[in-house]
Structure formats: structure tokens, C-alpha cells
## 1
Amino acid sequence: MSNALPTGRTEISCDVLVIGGGAAGIAAATAAGRAGAQVVLLERYGFLGGLATSAQVGTICGLYLRDETGVEAVPVSNGFASEFAGRLQQTSGTKPLRVDRGLWVLPYFPPDFAHVASTVVGETKNVKLISHATVANTCVENSKIKSVRALAWNEPLNFSAKAVVDCTGEATAAALAGAGSENGATDQSPALVFVLENVDPTLALRGLLEARRELRVSVQKGILPALCERISIVPGSGKNGRFAFKFSLLPANPDLALWQQVTDWETESRALLEPLVNFLVNNVAAFRDARLESVAPQLGVRSGRRILGRARLADADVLNTLKSVQGIARGCWPMERWTAAPKPEMNYFAQQKFYDIPFDCLRPVELENIFVAGRCLSAETGAMTSARVIGTALATGWAAGTAAAFQAAGKSLDEAVALIRKQMT
Ligand SMILES: Cc1cc2nc3c(=O)[nH]c(=O)nc-3n(C[C@H](O)[C@H](O)[C@H](O)COP(=O)(O)OP(=O)(O)OC[C@H]3O[C@@H](n4cnc5c(N)ncnc54)[C@H](O)[C@@H]3O)c2cc1C
């Protein structure tokens, strides 16, 4: 009997292959399925949501217009992002929350996000989910992706699809197929999210300020490594003494290969958690009885590889709230860039305004039958720090999935753009 792996003869055909089940991917698969395509959704983990669940991000940004005075959160557009937010609110009772400068977010509990994502995708009958499936190769002929190779629970599978949607957050399929791309990992710092339970709720607010001060002093005295100062709270967390924190690292070193950089980030941040938590427990009253409840299974990498598309969303387009006749999604979050500084650089545009993301930002120059969405889309550095948020990723995912279904059915992409634009208003 041979112990060799099967040689990859399992062939699966579909109309639309969606790669990556994060915010963009669940929207893309649902859109393509509802448009009538036979869809396969591949996800490398055993649950859906991408960074929203694996990195336990905790709040959805990009759903509502910025507004310092209005009493209610106003959605930036109609469509799938609003539908998904509504389902999440129904499931978990969460509500929009206004934070700094009139920005509205929707806090969520990560398992609820994963549950709603599975429910929504599961309800779309012609979508087949294959989990633990990692795409590692593509075959291209005449500017079209002919087949995609994945390892699904360590078994090689071959997919042929009429259209492909890359929602990997790293433009992996597009890059494997030869699309031009750029690496955004040096643009922003990643963060590891961890949760402390049993924080004294009566002392929490003061405790957080005190924690910051104590950490700063200890870093200055060399008691703790400098990174330990870089913690911030996830807005909306704090119910029943359970607080989520983001522990930010430094942006990627351009001289390191990304796989090496990610390994170093994961190792370093996880090793620092124990001394960090012990320090809080021993030095800040509010944390005296606190315990580490959970740590995100995956480090949150804010920027990764993205395509150089037929159009590129520019920083100026975001700040000047560009409108486009090809606009297929609306962005309403400011540019929020996490650098080596302890706090993010924020660049706001006017309140109650939004910008359009043109359809061609989802299309690689070199390939005809692949669309990208979420963090993979074509954008300048600053523009991506706005367009990457979950609300906008849901919207671009929907657009990419709709376009892919139209292409697979031999219908015109102009028709797809017209439908998406109608659904937004
Ligand atoms: C620390 C941090 C804090 C953030 N805070 C917020 C916030 O408060 N609010 C907000 O709205 N946004 C926030 N963001 C941004 C937001 O979480 C992401 O930009 C957004 O979730 C991206 O969605 P996506 O679908 O494009 O990509 P991802 O969420 O990265 O999804 C990609 C999916 O593809 C899968 N995948 C990858 N490669 C393969 C492969 N080869 N084969 C198969 N599957 C693959 C992954 O497992 C994953 O499920 C934050 C990000 C970070 C890192």
C-alpha cells in the first residue's frame, strides 16, 4: 500500500470559483450564487469571516456615514453590507456605536460574525463551500485562468471555472496567475488581538488610562520591551468585565520575505503576551483579578499584496470623495494608517460624504476572467487604509461576485455594473 498523496486527479468544475471566505469572499460567493451561478467557495480555515473572525477585529467600519451630530447611524449604501449588518444585529443584539469624530462602527462578537457568514452562505443553495482548502497554483491560457489547484484537507484538488474571484486578502490567485501586484505589508503595522476577562468594570476606564501610563513608564525604565506600550482597546468591548485589546507591532521589514516576517511577528507578539498580562495584573488595580481569556488564532495583517489593476484608487480620490460612473462600491471610512507611531494617522474627508470605488480597481490588467475584492483591490497606500475596512470589503466582494456571475453566463460586464449600481441606491 502506498503512503503517497493522491496526485490531484479530482476535478471540480463550476461557473464561479471564489477564493477566500473573509468579508469580501462571503459577499462574492453570495452575490454570484444569487445571480444564478454554480459557485465553489474555497477557504483555508475551518470557519468563515477572514480577519473579522480569525484576527478577532471586533468592529465593522465602513458601514455608516461619518456624522458628529445625527442621532442615528446612516448606511453609506443599500445592498449586501447593510443586509449582513442587519443579520448580525438580529443575531447578537449589537447596535451601531459612535466613536471619535462622528465615526460609526458596528461592534460584534467574532463567533457571531462567523455564524452569520455561514448562515448567509449556507442559505445560498448553489454555493458549495470547501473549507481547509488552500489555493497554491493556477494555470493560465490566453489571458484566462483555466484551472486552479488547491490542497483541501491535504488532498490535491483541481478546479476549472469560467470566472474566478480572488478574495484572499493577499491577491494570491491573481499573483500566481501573473497579475501585476504590489506589497503593502511595509505600509502598516499588524496587531494581535487578545481578550482579558474579569477586569473590574467599576475601575475599567480609569484602569485603562493607568495601564497606559504604567506601561509607558516601565518601557522607559527598560522593564518591558518597547512594543508593550502599543496596546489599544477594541471599541465596544468591555461588557461584563471582558475587554479586547489590539497589540500593535511594527510594519514589515522590507528586507525580509513576507512568510519570514509573519512568522517573526506571530512568535514575538505571542511571546510578549504573558509578561504584558502579568504586568497589568500586578501593577494596575482594575486588572488585579483579570485573566487572559483568549488570543486571536491569527495575527491581524492590515495590508498585504494587492493588484495593480486597470484603475487604481488614489489617495486624492478618497480625500476628494470621487464619484465615478463605474462606481461599484462606496467607501466612507477615513484613511486610517497604523505606522510605527503608537497611534494611527487619520485623514478625514467631509462628514456625510463617501467616495466611489471604480469597477476597474477589481480587474487585473493582464487577465480577463478574474476579479478581486477586499484587501486585494488596486489602490494607493493611503486609499487602501480606507478601502480595506470590513463594510467596504463586503461591498467590493458583492460587486466582484456579481461581475463574475455575469461573465460566466456570457452577459456583459456593463450590465453587471449597472445592476450593482442600482442595488446600491
Ligand atoms: C488588527 C486589525 C484591526 C482591524 N480593525 C478593523 C476594524 O475595527 N473595523 C474594520 O472594519 N476593519 C478592521 N480591519 C480591517 C479588516 O479586518 C480587513 O481589512 C477585512 O476584514 C479584509 O477582508 P477581506 O475579505 O478582504 O480579507 P481577509 O479577511 O483577509 O480574508 C481573506 C480570506 O482568504 C483566506 N485565504 C487566504 N489565502 C488563501 C488561499 N491561498 N486559499 C484559500 N483561502 C485563502 C483567508 O483564510 C481568509 O479567510 C482591521 C484589520 C486588522 C489587521
Note: The two ends are 61 Å apart (CA to CA).
## 2
Amino acid sequence: MQFIDTHTHLYLEDFDTDRNEMIKRAVARGINRFLLPNIDQSSVDPMLGLCKAYPDYCFPMLGLHPTSVKDDWQMQLDHFEKLLQESPTTFVAIGEIGLDFYWDKSFSTQQIKALRIQFDWAKKLQLPVAIHTRDAFPEMLAEIKEAQDGNLKGVLHCFTGSLEEAQKAIDLGFYLGIGGVLTYKKSDLPEIVKQVPPERLILETDAPFLPPVPYRGKRNESAFLFETAVKLAATLEMDLDTLAEITTKNAIELFNLPQS
Ligand SMILES: [Zn+2]
């Protein structure tokens, strides 16, 4: 049985003291591929360093996170565009990109501009996008709809929208990233995942953030994908082997990964 953690920030300093052991713990539970979303210019080197150390396990994305869209956003995008031109096959996705109106709304116009530019890269390079959305679902769905010309594909990472939003995203060709939130008592997500095709679900941790039950309040790590997978299998009344097979296949297809 194997799983792919499709969204995990294993290069962050939260893991500096035990990164190798942490990766081993995940691999021991069958979680043996890690897709690393970038945050901003400062995270690129640590991320690529980790991918160099674990070439069969770690796969990088490139993009500017919406909460990092500040005054220098254009400079950061220029830098990323150059990196993409220099090594177009290094990255498995443009991510993570998106809209976040929860933390700070003062750069919302710039966030939208940055998103559109990065959507264009993804379409041109035929890469999927990993999307972060917080307090901005209607705006995000409108942006995807506008950009969708048959060439845009991707995932709404850590999906926490409504059933209607899930269905709209799926109709627009997107996948839903299911993380630890699925295990939270008050979450609507279990009711939502039952009503969407399993072929559109992929698993993620968003480590070190959003740990599943029973690790809430602790640092999240990729090994904890297992708890989310068990919960998803139970919710869908599916055995864990089948769930592993389906979600792994979905991730391989979306991110164009090697078969194993
Ligand atoms: Zn993330």
C-alpha cells in the first residue's frame, strides 16, 4: 500500500532537527512520495536542496503563496519565471498560488494579478496548479472559470468549501486536496466527500500545519497522512487498500508523476 502526500512543506525549519527520521516514519507507513509547494523566493533553495537529497521521494513546485504577495511581488514572479525557463522539467506544479483574504486584504488586487500570471505559466507549461484559498472561494472559482480554456488543471489544496463549491471546482476540471481537517469533529468535509467522485480526491497533510486527530496542537508531519487516509476510507465505506490505490492514481495523473 502506498500513498502520496500531495502538499507538504518538509523543507521548513520546523523539521530541521529530525527531517531524516521524519521522512523515514512516513515511508514506514507507505507514504513515500512528497510534493513540496513553494512559498516565496526564500523557500526555493531549502526546497530544492531537499529534493536533491531525496530525488525519488521529493518533488518541488514553484509559485508565490498569496500571503507572500507584498510590494515586491512582481520581482519575485520575474525570478520564478526565469527559473521556470531555465529548468522547465524540474517542477511538478505551479504552487502554491491563490487568494487569501483572511490574513490581509490590502494586497488583494495584487494577489489577483499574481494569480492570473501564474495561471498563464501553468497553462503554457502544461503544469497543474496547487491552489490555496482562504475567505475567497467565490473569487477563486470566478478566476478559475475565467482562466479555464481546457488547459488549466489543478487542486484546491486543503479543501474547506461547501458542497456546491466542491461541485463547481470539479466541473471546472479540478481535484480536491483532502487533509487533516477531514478528521475534525465539526468539519462538514465528510458529508461533502461522500457526494463527489473519489476519482477527484487526493490526499495531503500541509505539514507542519493542520495536523489530523489525534495530533491536533502538535507539529504535523507526512506520516500523519495515514490518519486522514483511514478516516477517508471509513467515510467512503471503502477498504484502505482501495483508497490508497485510487488516491495514488489520481495524484500520479494530476501531477504527471512516474508510476512508482
Ligand atoms: Zn501549504
Note: The first strand starts at residue 3 and ends at 5.
## 3
Amino acid sequence: MQFSVLTIFPEFFDSFLSCGLMAKALEAGVVSVTRINPRDFATDRHHTVDDRPYGGGPGMVMGLPTLVSALRSLPRPGRMLMLSPAGRPLSQRFAAELAGEEALTLLCGRYEGIDDRMFDLFDITPVSVGDFVLSGGESAAACLMEAVSRLVPGFMGKDASAEEESFASGLLEYPHYTRPEVFEGLPVPPELLSGHHAAIAAWRRQRSLETTLARRPDLFDAVALSREDAAFVRGLPRARAGRNMHLGLVHGPVVLKDGKVGTVSLTNLDVHDIARVSRTYGLGGFEVVSPLRDQLALAARIVAHWREGPGLAANPDRAEALSLVRLHEGLDAALAAVTADHGREAALVATSAKGPATLSFAAARELIAARPTLVVLGTGHGLADEVLARADGILPPLRPFSDYNHLSVRAAAGILTDRLLGDVL
Ligand SMILES: C[S@@+](CC[C@H](N)C(=O)[O-])C[C@H]1O[C@@H](n2cnc3c(N)ncnc32)[C@H](O)[C@@H]1O
């Protein structure tokens, strides 16, 4: 692999290239690194590479003349990448893709970045090493070079070690231990001392699944889990975090068609479908709120039909879902029931198709992980202001950029639950 690095600080890479596996790989010719300083291509006395930004604003911008000359001086640039916080995120998969190239050229920005016309002049892919801002692209380029080089055949002592690492299987890696067997009272997990290869492999796989669920549940999206994996993950306490969340369906006080506040009648389908969502996502319960006694009596009849009556014989799965339904005359009673279930005061999270949002989905996920939470949806034209006003937070609309925001409350409950819990929690 031939790396060419365009940088105004070539010395930055001195220590990086002179130690560890990188130094060995350079020596063995597995990788080679050429540093090119755009300053060397400046024609003025001060070797200027930057200039003031058009449109004003703070900072300087790396200009085209020196960068273009530096890049055009390369006989074999290969694939061109620019380190940038606005780039494609660097990942193990992306690193593996890049390791398949013969040559890579890395542009390290400084100041506010580079003149954007570079991207019109050359086919350059911007690459980010994370959602944070560095002072220059050099440390990002070092990350990229190291991640890519490790995947170049011959870089690592044993090729197998790259395959076992975090992300290689799509999951985070299991923990490692070495001698002594007991350190300050802390023993090495006995499974690793058993000498039984299958038991060790199973233990490692389970730790991998556990760590991934705890730290990066988003990674499960791209992993094919075996039946055993799925059963193991389901049994982990964190996978039951969904139980902290209860859905609430409020029939009053809600906004009516004419804009006034009142109560709407119950819809059989809502009760069925939201109960099924609640069961599928392992929620703590489904709280149906209506201030009207006859409506609650109707709901009780529907639920009883499926839970105990002829419905149970016809469809026991439905009975399982409807057993999560509880009926309440008001929001206070629903909140009190959730609080009583968990022995801790429940938070109230409201939803609105219009806003104003006061709680992001990310913040709501954290809330649910930490505390019992009743997430309420309004029937009719949405929850009344008095409900929004007393909520601990109001979630953003599900489709903030759509000009059509008229989901059925059943569909909204499903989408919302998935957005809050994802498919593994
Ligand atoms: C101070 S930064 C410029 C930040 C830029 N004004 C912005 O807000 O996106 C200077 C240079 O550092 C590098 N850099 C900073 N953060 C980075 C990141 N997260 N990933 C890759 N490169 C980064 C880029 O080469 C960038 O041009």
C-alpha cells in the first residue's frame, strides 16, 4: 500500500512512522508513506498556503494553487481522500474497502479547511474519523493509515488476529486476560482456564454480544445473529429495558375537530394494534385513558372477550397482547399505576405532531433506560395543551420535514416505539 500524505506539518508523522507495527511494515515494504508539503509548491517568499475566506468570517482557508500543484506532482495518487469532519465516517468496513486499493492519497486540512473547488477539480472523498473537530487532518490521517494498514496482508504477525477484533464480526470484541491468574483478588473468568475450546468460544461470543448490547446496540443492525445468539441477548437484563416504557393512549382531554378540548370515543383497532406493539417490544404496559365511564366499560368488554372469552380460544396470541391493557379514568391514575408497578416515580413524555419539542429522541432513550416512563399519544387532533404542559418532555414530530403529518395513532405508536427502543432493546 502506497500512502501519499499532503500536509503542512510533515514532521507530525515522524513518531507515528517510527514505532510499532507501522515501523516494521515500512521496513518490510508492506506499506510506504510519502509526505508532500504544499508549502514547497508556493511561489511567494513566505511560502503561503492560506488566505482569507470569501464572504468573511473567522479563520483562514487553504488555497487552491499550492494544493493543486502538490497533488498534480504525484505520479501515482491512487484513490484520493480528504480528512474532514464533514466526511464519510471511517469504519472497519470502509477501512477494509480502502485496504483493497494499491495507493491512497490523504489531504490533511488545517485552518477552516480547504477551498471547496478542490472537490470539483479532483475526485476526492471526504472522510471523518468522528463527530468532533480536530485542529488539523494529520491525527485523523494517522488513524486512517493505521486502520487501513492493519488490513493489508503482511502487516500483522498473524492474519487471524485482525479477524477476531472488534467490528470484524460486526460486534465489539470480548475481553482479554493474561497472567497472573488472580490479581489483587480478581480472578480470570474460569471458562478461559477450562482448556475446552468450544466452551471458550461460546463464552467469548456471549461477552461480545453483552458488550455490544451495553455500548453499541446500533451495531446489531448489521449482524446476522444465530438462534442461540438471539436467545442469549433476549435474556440479558438490558434487553428488558423496554419494560420501563409504557404507552398511554389518551382519549381526553384531547383537541377536537373544531379546535376545542374534549373527549373522543374509543377505537377498537387502536386497542388491539397498540397492545400488539406493546407486547412485541416488551413494554411494561399499555395504559388506555378515557374520562368516560361507558367508554371504559366498552374497552373492558373488548379486552375481556379476547383475554378470557371466546377470543382466547380463537387467538391466544391476541390474549397475550391484550393482557397488557389497563384502563384509567385519567392521566393521574395511569401515571400512578406505572409508578406503582416499578416502585419509582414515572416520567411523563408527551407526543405532538406539531411541537414544540422539548425532549430529543436520544434524551428520551436515556430517560427510558433510567426511569419508568409513560409515553402518551393523543387521539382526535392530539393531546390538549394541559397534558403537554404537565409532561416532563415533549417528543419531536415523527416526520418534522414532511408537509403531511397525519399518521393514525396506531401507526404513530409503532414508529415511536421502534425509534425509542430500536429492535434489540
Ligand atoms: C479546524 S478543522 C476545520 C473544521 C471546519 N471548519 C468545520 O467546521 O467542519 C481543520 C481540519 O482538521 C481536520 N479535521 C478536523 N476534525 C476532523 C475529523 N473529525 N475527522 C477528520 N478530519 C478532521 C480536517 O482536515 C479539517 O480541514
Note: The CA atoms of residues 276 and 321 lie 5 Å apart.
